[in-house]
Specification:
This protein is an alpha/beta fold. The protein has a single domain, classed as HUPs (Rossmann fold, 3-Layer(aba) Sandwich). It is about 30% helix and about 25% strand. It contains seven helices and ten strands. The protein has helices at about 15-25, 55-65, 80-95, 110-120, 135-145, 170-175, 235, and strands spanning about 5-10, 30-40, 45, 65-70, 100, 125, 145-155, 190-195, 205-210, 215-220. The strands form two sheets. Strands 1, 2, 3, 4, 5 and 6 form a six-stranded mixed β-sheet that branches. Strands 8-7-10-9 form a four-stranded antiparallel β-sheet, with no helix packed on it.
Length: about 240
């Protein structure tokens, strides 16, 4: 790697991507120049995490980085996703970006997929957290002041009562032994609202909790003066299941 590699963060709005940003901020060979997020257009929410784009954009402002939204349809085929990602990477390369960092931890097939997709693009995939023991990593995040709310739970792997809770020591202590404490197998997803990578915290509250298509979603809304929840449509109030 050359010094000051211009890098984008693959930003899911959750803890692992936020911690990836934190890890890269401590390196002197990396220049993080922005966030890259997949958004489902039909619902205007972050794919899978079901986070409203207004909160996604608030996160970007809070960490002080520009945000690129990769818009995908619902439903989205593999080909459509690949095309949307390819266009985003081509545009990033034109802007001098030479790396994209991912928050993946240990799933070999996911890493291989990303490496295959980025081969030949001129952009190198980075995995700053790869191989970190997830039990200690999750507690390191909490101890360092990262604050995240559980926005999605797979009830086949984790009880639905965890949806809408904060990721803290009590939650980690209560996870079944079968559940990865970082949710790496899709047991749960989170929304980060504060941490060492934030210039200021976001004030949020948990809204409606619903079950759809086999997942339990906890909506997250602003609880500060910018909160516009009262005027939003039913589609916006309900969590998304991209």
């Amino acid at each position: 790697m050359t010094r000051h590699t211009k890098t984008l963060i693959s930003w899911s709005s959750g803890k692992d991507s936020a911690w990836t940003l934190h890890a890269l901020s401590e390196r002197n060979d990396i220049e993080v120049v922005g966030l890259l997020t997949t958004v489902t257009s039909a619902f205007d929410r972050v794919a899978m995490h079901a986070v409203r784009t207004e909160l996604l954009r608030a996160q970007a402002r809070a960490v002080g980085l520009p945000l690129t939204e990769i818009r995908i349809p619902f439903p989205c085929s593999n080909a459509q996703y690949a095309n949307a990602m390819s266009e985003a990477l081509t545009a990033a390369a034109r802007d001098g970006v030479t790396a994209v960092a991912f928050g993946d931890l240990f799933l070999e097939d996911v890493r291989q997929y990303r490496e295959d997709r980025m081969r030949g693009t001129g952009i190198t995939p980075l995995f700053p957290l790869w191989g970190r023991p997830t039990h200690s990593l999750a507690r390191e995040m909490v101890a360092a002041g990262l604050r995240a709310r559980v926005t999605c739970v797979d009830p086949r792997q984790l009880d639905a009562c965890f949806a809408g809770r904060d990721l803290d020591t009590r939650l980690l202590d209560g996870l079944p032994a079968s559940v990865d404490p970082c949710g790496e197998r899709g047991e749960f997803h989170t929304f980060v609202y504060d941490g060492p990578m934030f210039q200021r915290p976001l004030r949020i509250r948990t809204g409606e909790i619903v079950e759809r298509d086999g997942f339990v979603f906890a909506d997250v809304v602003r609880s500060d003066p910018e909160d516009t929840d009262g005027s939003q449509s039913e589609q916006q109030r309900n969590p998304m299941h991209a």
